[in-house]
Amino acid sequence: MPYILDAGATVICMHGGQATPAVTNPKVKAGGQPVTTMGPPWSIAGCAFVPPTGTGPCATAPFTVPATRVMAGGQPVLLQSSSATCIPTGTPAQVVVTQLRVQAT
């Protein structure tokens, strides 16, 4: 089972930009941090990609495929196995570090 993403999770774009969650649930915690839920895309800062076509560096990363059985505040939680695609580049975002105590499906 994959681990639940918390607010302290490290998620990066393929160019080294750091993603931060737009929404967390402060009432539900995993590993001492609020859990993240589906909703607005994560913001990306520090993307080093400079495309020749002018599409710009990675700015946001909407997640897909959240947990199917675990909810927080009526929203499905995000998992280490959830995928995200960076906008506007179309490259994947990668979960590098997350809490290692709470798992979900």
Summarize the structure.
The protein is mainly β. Helix content is 0%, strand content 37%.
Shape: elongated
* Share of residues in helices: under 10%
What's the tally of helices?
A: 0
User: What is the arithmetic mean of pLDDT?
Assistant: 94
| C-alpha termini separation | 6 Å
Uncertain spans: none
Count of distinct strands: 11
**Percentage of residues in DSSP E strands:** 35-45%
Give the H and E element order: EEEEEEEEEEE
Measured on Cα atoms, how large is the radius of gyration? 14 Å
**What's the arrangement of strands in the largest beta sheet?**
6-5-2-1-11-10-7
Structural class: mainly beta
Largest sheet: 7 strands, antiparallel
Structure characterization notes:
It is a single chain. With 105 residues, the chain is mainly β. Helices cover 0% and strands 37% of the residues. It contains no helices and 11 strands. Strands 6-5-2-1-11-10-7 form a 7-stranded antiparallel beta sheet, with no helix packed on it. Strand 10 and strand 11 form a beta hairpin. The mean pLDDT is 94.
